[in-house]
Amino acid sequence: MLNDLKQYLREDKLKHILCSGCGHGTIMNALVHAIEKCQLDRDNTVIVSGIGCSSRIPGYLNFNTLHTTHGRALAFATGIKLADPQLKVIVITGDGDGSAIGGNHLIHACRRNIDITTIVFNNNIYGMTNGQYSPMTPVGSYASTAPYGNIDRSFDLCKLATGSGATFVARGTAYHVTMLTDLIVKGIANDGFSVVEAMSHCPTYYGRKNKLKSPVIMMEMLKKSALPLTAFEKLPAEKTEGKYAIGVLHHEPAPEYTKEYDRVIEIAQKGAN
Amino acid sequence: MSRKKAVITINYDWCKRCGICAAFCPTKVYDTDNSGKPIIKNLDACVVCRMCEKRCPDLAINVEEVK
Q1: Rounded distance, CA A103 to CA A97, Å?
Q2: C-beta atoms surrounding A178 within 10 Å
C-alpha cells in the first residue's frame, strides 16, 4: 500500500530528520494517505509551512511546496490562494508556529473563511529549539523554560478556531490514524477554512521532561487522553481534566473568501454607477 | 473464508527503531531485537489491518496482501 503512495514523496530526501518515534512522522503518513484518498493533482496542490519540526515536512512531499518564515505560512497561503483560487492549498504548522508566532494570522484566516486546509501538528512544545513551553503546553507540564512546571493556561485551539469563524474544525491524534486521515479528507473537501488539530508527541523534549520515557508510552497517553466527541460530552466536568474530544468538532458552511472576492472583482469591472 | 496473507517489507534505511509497530500490532506479528529493530516474527498472524504501516513515523513499512 505505502509503495503506491511513493509518487507523493520525495524519496531522495528521505529518511526524514524527525527523531525516532516522533508523532509528526505518523501525521505526515496520515496526510499522505488523505491526499491519496482525495486524489489531489500534484500540479494543482500547494503545501505551505512555517518554521518548526512540523514545518520541515513539506520538504519530503512531492508537490509544489513552500517553506516560509516563522508563523507566516497562512499569510503566504492566503496570497497563493487569492492569486490562483483553483489551487488546493494545505498549510502545515506546529503549535508554536500556528498559535503563538502566527496566532494572529490563524484567527484572521479563520475569520475570512478562505479555502485553505490547515493541519496543526500539536506536540505541546517547541521541539526544534530545545523544548521551551508553547501556548499549547498543558498547565503543570515541564519544559526547558518551565523547570518547576508550567503555570500558563493553554489554548483550546479548536475552540479558538471555531470562535474565529473557521467553517470546519476537527481534532485527531497520531494514535487514531485512520480517523485522522478521514478528518484531513473532510477538511480538504470543505469549501472554506478548515483546521485539523493533530495531537502529536515529542519523545525527545516533552517526553524526557515529563517522564514519558518512550514514543510507545507517549502514544498510549494519546490513546488514553482522547475521547470521541459524544463520549467526551457525557463525561462529568470533574473527570475531563487531561482529556480532550476528538472528531469533527464544528462544521458550519459559510461564504468562501475567494468566491466573494471574485464577486467584488465582477462588480468593480462593471464600473461605478 | 480463508485468512488473509500478507507480505511485509521494512525499509531499514528509513526505520529509526522506535518500536511503535511492534507495540501496537494487534496480533503481535513483530518482535524487536536489542537495538529496537523490528523483526517479523509471526507473519501468519497478520490480518492485514495495516496499522503498522499507517502508524510508522518513518513510512518504512509496506504491507501487501497476497491473494
Answers
A1: 8
A2: 15
- How many of the other CB atoms lie within 10 Å of CB of A44? 13
CATH number, domain containing residue B45:
3.30.70.20
How many separate domains does chain B show?
Answer: 1
CATH architecture type of domain A2-270: 3-Layer(aba) Sandwich (3.40)
Domain ranges, residue B12 = 5-66
The domains of chain A are located at 2-270
Q: A24 to chain B nearest CA, in Å?
A: 7
pLDDT score recorded for residue A1: 63
Strands A88-94 and A64-67 turn out to be: unpaired
Determine the pLDDT at residue A169: 97
Looking at the complex, does the CB of residue A26 fall below 8 Å from at least one CB of chain B? yes
Could you tell me if B32 lies within 8 Å of chain A, comparing CB atoms? no
Q: Tens of pLDDT along A227-247?
A: 999 999 999 988 888 899 999
With beta carbons under 8 A apart, name residues in chain B contacting A177: 51, 54-55
